[in-house]
## 1
Amino acid sequence: MSTLAYEIVDVFTDRPFAGNPLAVVFGAEQLATGQMRSLAAEFNLSETVFLLPPSTTGATYRARIFTPEGEIPFAGHPSVGAAVTAMRRGLFAAGEVIQECGAGLLPITVTAAGGATLTGATPRLGEPLDPAPLLAAAGLTAADYAGDDLAAPRSAGCGLDWVLLPVRREALARTRIDVAAAERAGVTDLSVFAWADREAHARVFVAGGAVPEDPATGSAALALGVWLVAAGRLPGDGVSSYRIHQGVEMKRPSRLECTVTAVGGAATSATVAGQVWPVASGRIAVPPFIG
């Protein structure tokens, strides 16, 4: 039986067995999309990433990223985890690399110490949203809401969009996704966060997903930077840093170090950085091809 090499790593944490676990699969050039989807479902982590040769000039490598349900164009912890793991396996040296993925060509700075800084794609920002149905989707009430006219819930993203809902810090422990309410609100990907002193405490959910809560979400961290500038929580010009604590309620504490660059009151780019810890490696059988 044919097999492929893989590693399991923990991303956005200062120690193993915390942060967000990720499966990194190598040598998958001949796999069909359905086979990749089957492998991602077998690992059953929030994401599995397949490292491939680049298909375009200027890229160091290509990443295809899958949840247990299917392929997505971009995600933060697979991008950071894949870059560091590939460097450790000798695919390239530490330094500046370019990842090709569904969101385009993304710069990543990889360190020999096992960390990486990812620059997201072009920021996007949606219109303000009514907080009431989002609070209901999160199992919360109006008393838990921490927004205002400027800091209203919105969708935002730098390659993958999330709906961002500001709440009081004490509400995070009580947050429980109501899948039916989320469906009525028309939201699947929801980041619920509390903000103070350039730090956020966050919980990130995929309503109805195979992995309904994420312990560390790089794409949502980038999205938060876009939201913070639009909400006036960070300066509208220059480069600002912020930190996100996530996964605490899941007992997988994570820390994401971020920056956002703004011009004229709007975010123009954002970065997210963290460490990557190897925890397992092996070989996995290649699933049968189903045409």
## 2
Amino acid sequence: MSIVTTPEERFEDVPDYDYPHERVPVTDDGAEMAYVDVAGSGEETFLLMHGEPTWGVLYRKLIPTLAERGRVIVPDMLGLGRSDKYTDPDAYSFDLHYESFETLLFDELDLTDVTLVCQDWGGILGLALAGHHPERFARLVPMNTGVPDGTQEMSDAWHQFADFVESVEELPIEMLVENATATDLTDEELAAYSAPFPTEESKACARVLPFLIPQSPDDEGAATMRAAKERLAEWDKPAFVLFSDSDPITGNARDPLRELIPTAKEQPDTWIEGAMHFLQEDAGEEIAEEIVAFVDRT
């Protein structure tokens, strides 16, 4: 099965994200996941998990503030960012992504007392990991995401997005990011999102991810998410649901998520105003301050 690694020179002009990165194999065939690990200056450990079709650069505006409070780890999903990419869409599966994160976070990095900050697919996988490994996590900050177990209703905007991804011959990564942010991104910032994809075949993961979300209770991943959902319904550690107010893609998941996690209602009923799906781009510094305040409260 063909695995490709994006040449490092593709990332030379990425703005404000010049942190050293590491790579470790996370699959039986040796595919490597890349991650940034900022030592920071406090005792906290923050895990920042991105979604589709982005990568760790999405969190660049949060890292400086969070690093003042501790270690910050930002992995790239297999198939995205600096991580290795299968060129065959059939190589990707829900289980591949879930298990590769288990390998990285627990087997390789042995993370504990984690404050999880997650969005989009990073939230799906991150919340699943928290549900199945609650002993590893201290706090949850889910943003613009959900816990899909095959019984959820996806938004009209999500269906439009999935139909578009399925129909286009060339997947316009920069356009997808630009259309899901309220901020006017610079040419350099937009180029950072297409940097991981030198060829169309390297976008295989970005193309298939919408269709790996469990759409029925029998789909792969549905049982994993169902079990995580049951455990999250009994979550007794701090949780701060922090959604943007202008995201048509996942906005409908916000209230159900806040109702699901018992401790979420103990935190302020906060919205990030004027931000769209990629709220980290639209209000990264504000989000970082909200997270630090949450840590201080708990």
## 3
Amino acid sequence: MAITLCMIVRDEAARLPQCLASVAGVVDEAVIVDTGSQDETVAIARAWGARVYEIPWQDDFAAARNVALGYVTTEWVLVLDADETLTPAFAALLPQICQQPNWLVVTLLRQELGVIPPYTPVARLFRRHPAISFQRPYHETIDDSVLALQQREPHWQIGHVNGVAIVHSGYLGDQRQQKQERAERIMRRYLEQHPEDAYLWSKLAGVYLAAGALDQAEYCLAQGFKVNTLPPVVAYELCYQQGNLFAERGQWQEAIHVYETALRTSPPEAMPIATYLRLAEAQKQLKRWGEALATYDRVQRLDPTCPFAYQNQGALLLRLGQVSAGLDKLRQAIALLWDQHPAEAQRLTQELQAMGFSLASSECL
């Protein structure tokens, strides 16, 4: 089955080559829509062999993605951004995945480098169908159009693939603040016209929480919870952000209650690592050490490659005087971080050495 890489880009000359290299030999063609680059992005894309189309930027990610979809001619579409790469393990599975006769969309697990939550499920691989399009100008998804299509043609299924398929590095470096400001602007404008979009209220609440604007985050969550019918993924997201709001205000017992509610409502496609990590932090704040250690154990069983679970548990064990066990966990965290976030691995190593701990053994220097 032929696959088209479908992208929208702007001033991505530094990152686009790595993205394109990750899909070399995997996709049959590439359609790239450029929204006003001033650097060498367009030249790089064309030199790689992509079909490039240039359009003006309209402050609407869904609109730009739908323009790109309009140029796709193959049966399958893979959507990536320039700050994302496809993992080799997932690339090897792609031919088999595209042979599934009734799979319409495949939910992929994206690893977010340097941030919590460390994973996000994304619908980035799907059949090119005229009824499928992106909605929302920010945090754009195809979910609504897919649901409507399934109601008309119920044989279509949503597929899921285990393991990380996409690695996202966009939150590393100095671009996060700029992205947050753009997100706030676009989402606020959209919600003025679509106040029933509970999902986007949850996302805007997250932006305000990151900026420390707690009252504004509370308002967004209240608006989201007002919506009569909440799909499980939206209810989960609202509860998760409400737990974060309680945590920011130091209301730890309330945070624990809401995080536990979020975990009970977590849909199958979610990867609730962030909720467990924040639950453990709230448990630590109330000195419920045993519960926090057990929560970290649960994260490690759910995802053995999550370095934060080992790092936080190791630090807690050191605090409790369990030096050998704590250093073992911290070594595991560092080993994972060298692959996922080398700068953090180096920082943690230097911090432990400054404290007098050796990473070669469980004894002090």
